[in-house]
Amino acid sequence: MRCHWIERGWTEEDVEKYVGPYLEAEKSRSATPLILMLDALDHMPPDGRMPGFMKAMQTRYPDVEFVWGSLAEYGAELRQHIDSLPEHRGELRLPLRDAARRWQYLIAHTLSSRYPIKKRNSECETLLEKWAEPYGLFQAMAGGKPILRYLDLAWEYLIKNHPHDSICGCSIDQVHRDMHYRFDQCALIADGFVRRAMADLAHADAAPTNQTNIVIHNPLPFARSGPFEVTLHFPCDWPKKYVDGLASGESINQFRLFTKDDAPVPFQLRKIARGIECKPLAPNGRLGHGLFDLYDVLVDMELPSCGFVGLRAEPCDEAVRHFDSLRTGPLSASNGVFSFTLNADGSGTLEHAASQKRYDGLFQYEDCGDSGDGWTRGPLVNDLVFRSPGSRVTTAVEEDGPLRTVFRVEREFDLPREMDRRTWWRSEDRGTLRVVDRIYVEKGAFALRVRTEVRNTIKDHRFRVLFPTRLEADRSFADTPFAIVARDIAIPPETVAWAERVNPEKPFTSFFGVQNSAAGIALISGGGLHEYEVTQTPDRSLALTLFRSTCKTVRTSGEPDGELLGTMTFEYGLHPFGDTFDPVLALNMASQLQTGIRTHGVAKLPETISHLSLRKGDIVVTAIKPADDGDGGIIRLWNPGGAALHDEVRFAVPLREARSCNLNEDPGAPITLNPTGSLPVTIPAYGLASVRFRW
């Protein structure tokens, strides 16, 4: 109604048509004597005519008290009637039923709009939450002096990208171009903060002669086992080399890897780059310079929780080769947890050893038209939906060894170049969309890791990948912030005539999946991916939306950036499991996918250090950070399960005191530390626990 007033003012006819029926309808469905008439449409300034309107309404409806207040005031008033409110369990995600309430749409497809900004946002959040904040705390606990204002500034840049039309990807091109600058500033500031903290904690050294002594950092609050990707910086005149073949063969350094206590570290050589200019980490956190031969290796070792471990490369007198492999056939491999077979058409088969459940026909790509915009996908009436197999496929083994086998799948799709905006048909003119999958079978891993590159040359379409499960399941599960939810797969038939369609696509934060009483499978995101569907077909496929290409932006006839032309990279994992799904394991795997490790050179290998660890580790740590006021630290824990959990947090330095706190970090009741100095924590079912501590 206000939209009409902005253009022409309100009339008595408007009151008769809108206000009276609205009040009666709201009273009939309200459990309290309160009605919220929210005057908060997007991008609307305060309307100076509202006081006059309120006065006129008070006169017209004397039995109704009209109050122009804030949401906080409304909430305080509503709290007085809390006992009369009905209890609702589950999500509030029903779409619009009545077209008369047209501004109450449940807009679903911003989840897959402008994937590059979603990915960049995830990278910045990970850098701040998993690296910068923990390492700032550890540096302070070790006696260092982190400049916390840098953290604040990095967060300021990131938060400025979080208005809903910005982070959702549904604004004009210029808004989203500006976002990339702020992402860059956030990442540059946070990365410098992390470099200084690492250099201070582990005594980094940029001298070229010290780059074969390295420290590997793990910021995550749980120990991690390899294999880990590490780049070794060798001087170009490394004294020991061997050649496979005659003198014209590739020259390879002879070396072995050891920990500080001289324990040998198994490794797998991946690739070599020679004569590369690099910037080693200096003691002050800045970057040095040197010319190196880079050896990318996989190392099989354990990293401590929230800490680091040393590793050194030493020359040896003999060649170091590995003939072992995880492969079980030309295009199959097994790591003991699961086996994977790559088929000639690019599809795959995954078999979980414990449950003996087999998933066939994985990696089915689907491309369909999209006439929508940043808010909503626009299905075409006259669509052409393309699926694989049917594309041109080339398969290869890219890496092979005792720690990891990597299969490479190259696909080419001939797709309609764009949509005709007069007919809304996909064009007969074809372009080539190229997809490269790298599928990782890694020693001891609980998930099949996938890295996908898509070179998009096509406009006006949606591109996703499907994984048939053939599980008899009525519901899917997914994580959302501080909750794991179950959702019906079937769309209720009574919704067919609703004003807004019930979209089968749903949101997730880090994982989603399906299961029955014996087995299940979940997909775990490496960041930036947030839209899924479980198909209603009997195969119950997990459908992951990679991206949507759209032209339309608000109040324009079309702009180019939303088409996402160019190369995009996606990373995720497929996690098969038995009769019980472990959300803590899944969330930890998501953290590992998104966070990785960091390394740098040192003059002398340090002792292995764990700044913080949990004794049991069956809860999720969502924050480790310095207190906002600089006085102490904060740890926040989440229990995704239905029973209260008890654990203890161990620190590398003794604590002086600890108190419970709220999300604003206001201190609450004191917590008695254990005799060993560890911090006892209790997390209620489905709840959070935040603790503020000092050392």
For this entry, give a set of tags.
single chain; 695 residues; alpha+beta; nine-stranded antiparallel sheet; 9 helices; 42 strands; 19% helix; 35% strand; globular
Textual characterization of the structure:
With 695 residues, this protein is an alpha+beta fold. It contains nine helices and 42 strands. The strands form ten sheets. It has a nine-stranded antiparallel β-sheet, with helices on one face. Strands 17-16-24-31-30-27 form a six-stranded antiparallel β-sheet, with no helix packed on it. A hairpin with a 7-residue loop joins strand 4 and strand 5. Helix 5 runs parallel beside helix 8. The mean pLDDT is 95.
Distance between the termini: 58 Å
- Overall body shape: globular
Mean pLDDT: 95
Low-confidence stretches: none
| Number of strand segments | 42
Task: Determine the number of helices (DSSP H or I, runs of at least 4 residues).
Answer: 9
- Helices and strands: which structural class? alpha+beta
Strand order of the largest sheet: 18-19-22-23-32-29-28-25-26
**Percent in helix:** 10-25%
* Rg, alpha carbons: 28 Å
Strand content: 25-35%
Biggest sheet, in brief? 9 strands, antiparallel
Chain-wise SSE layout:
Blueprint: H1 2-8, H2 12-29, H3 50-60, H4 71-79, H5 115-141, H6 148-159, H7 164-167, H8 173-202, E1 213-218, E2 224-225, E3 228-235, E4 241-243, E5 251-253, E6 255-258, E7 267-278, E8 290-299, E9 302-303, E10 307-315, E11 327-329, E12 332-334, E13 338-342, E14 348-352, E15 358-362, E16 364-369, E17 386-387, E18 392-400, E19 404-416, E20 419-420, E21 425-426, E22 430-442, E23 448-456, E24 461-467, E25 475-480, E26 483-488, E27 506-507, E28 511-515, E29 520-525, E30 531-534, E31 542-549, E32 566-577, H9 583-595, E33 598-601, E34 609-610, E35 612-614, E36 620-626, E37 633-638, E38 645-651, E39 657-661, E40 667-670, E41 679-683, E42 688-694
Antiparallel strand pairs: 1-10, 1-33, 2-9, 3-8, 4-5, 6-10, 7-8, 10-34, 11-12, 12-13, 13-14, 14-15, 16-17, 16-24, 18-19, 19-22, 20-21, 22-23, 23-32, 24-31, 25-26, 25-28, 27-30, 28-29, 29-32, 30-31, 35-38, 36-37, 37-42, 38-41, 39-40, 39-42
Helix pairs in contact: 5-6, 5-8, 6-8
